[in-house]
Please model this.
Amino acid sequence: MESNDSETLIDRLVAGEASDFEVARLSEMVGRDPTLAEELREELQFSEWIRHAVRDDASAQDQSLFDSLEFRDLSVEERVSLARDGDLSSAAADELARNLLDAPDLAANLRSELFEDEMIAQIVSSAKSENAFVDSLVTRMWAETNEDHFVEDFSKKLEEIEREQPDNVVAFPGRSWKTKVAAVASLAAAVAIGAFFITSGLESSLSSGAVAKIRKSTVDAIWAPDSQPNREGKFVKGTYRLESGAVSIELADGKSLAVQGPAVFEVDDSGDAVLLEGIALATSDRTDLTTGQPIGIGLSAKNVRFSKGAITVGLDARSSDSTEAIVFSGETGICMSESTICRDVYEFEAIKADHSHSKFVDVPYNPRAFSKAWELVSGIEKNLGDIVIELPGITSSSKQSDSGEIRVFVERERFKPESTMEVDVIRPGYFASSSDSKTEGRALASNGEEMRSYLLQLWKNEDQPEDEEIEASMTFDHPVVGVIFSSERLWESDRMVGASTQHLAENSNRGLDSIGDQILLSEDGRTLNLKLKSNATDIDQVRVLVALK
Amino acid sequence: MDKSDQELFVRQVREHHASLRGFVRSLGVNPLWVDDIAQEAFIVAYNRLDEFDKDRDFGAWLRGIARNLVINERRKDARRKRIISDNLTDVLLSTSSTPEYEAEELGDRGLAKVNALRECIRELPEKSLSLIKAKYENNSSALDIAETFGMKPPAVRKALERLRASLRKCMEKRMELFGA
Model:
């Protein structure tokens, strides 16, 4: 039976019979009564002498009370700090729990701090590393299930789940979709704010010696410790080594560079860059006011440089014997730095500089190697669902997929519509689909502003005999000003965006239909949510126009 | 098991383990037992995979399982408990609400957080890094660290506190700037 009397509690403690509750209770009492505390100290000290006389160590229980007594002198913040360090006895932890009951904010804060501690431990301790965790888990799975195929089975099941339920998929009506759309909208807003902050911050940072700044990076981007941007993601003139992942970097004068690791590159204060190793893709959104030609980025690699501006170009310098140059948008000239040999290269063309023979060799246009870098500059956050962002100049994908997917083609990176375009009416926050009768339309006037055009197309899984339904969501880094999802208006707008429709049967039905297809534009006009259902005869396409300014 | 299965498994565990372990620790689990509970959650998930509601987030589901495992710890005999204190875990559990909320709060973007933090730790001056390693790699107590570094234990705690605050700031900045 547990006691509340102080003398009995002390006796029971000295005899080593006190329960946790009694220890905690006694701690509380001595905290209120200094005389009792003194009495207890003397009792414990005496019993400690006896204990040491008969054996070397003190009981954990007494130690726990000593800790508890010392603990009383600490502030709540100091107690939390002890808890974080793990230097906390069970009795002290109980005491802290009582403090936290009255301070839920402190409790929540402690949780975040413990979470962070675990993260730090995972990084600095080899025993807590990812490999150690996985190895131990695999062994334990095998041991606990006695099934050799456990891991294999688990992998397959998880893969099925991933396929059926991609991260953050926006649920359509019939599910709890409202909260999820709100989350998507806020994500889009965060992207927009981030982009603005970085772009506006770049100009001011140039004066402090920075010549470039990171705009976006993949989660697996790792820099070499001795050649990386500073904590704010800024670069001074110099050489940098990206070990893995991809980053997009904002340079001066509206130029940007996307680098794909492993890569080594240099940036300078004129907004130009030199690729020493790896893959880089450069874009420029500025135009020479007198000639109307794009002002390209001065991107060069070993013995190779672009001589004229193009909108988007790429260099592949993974080999020491040759460098491959590719033009994604616009046209340019390319020269051997150490000679006068130059060649013009046009959109969707590629050329290889053979360093040992100092000559250019034509090579097929195959931009696949640039896919990671391209995803960062395509203007799309491929955040939700089965989406494949196609490289420029690719009209059909060779990628095979086990399930259906939505493929996104950048039709024209930059153009000014010659006349008004008719787009379908889509009210932000409300679902739309094309009905049998003509869908309501509106005229989209560009007012001289530049736009970019994307074509989204549902790609069916040919092996799937039944109709397949795909849900996806994508956030654009520029505001969506027009969406075309009716077949008629898609045909009408093809010429304006320079789309090739040779592969489509004339006047075939290619828009969204009212049976199973739905489209939703978020309130902030940047995120598009799609639910498309394939059928045997029709093609599902959507054209998206974004304003570049 | 062939190599591709193994790679796939590693990739999937990689996506969820960091945030799951952080979540487990945040509920007052003894640091020495964090990985044990996280692994148990993976094993329970496997056994109940057929019950998984595919409309839910898989990481949040895992955290829900781990949460229940931690709740069960309170009923165990003191010698077998993997938590520091029942009462402390009770309070921490009461602030953790539902697994769905956790997805937004602590567990979300676990991999990105670890990568950002890794970069921040790499940038630490040598002495700070030694201090962090003593604490998190060697699991030394403030008293032991104080002896090694010729400091007093409260000064060690203060220094660690400052270091962690600066790491948190760096991580948040990286997450924000790098669009991770």
Summary: Residues 51-62, 165-207 of chain A have pLDDT under 50 and may be disordered.
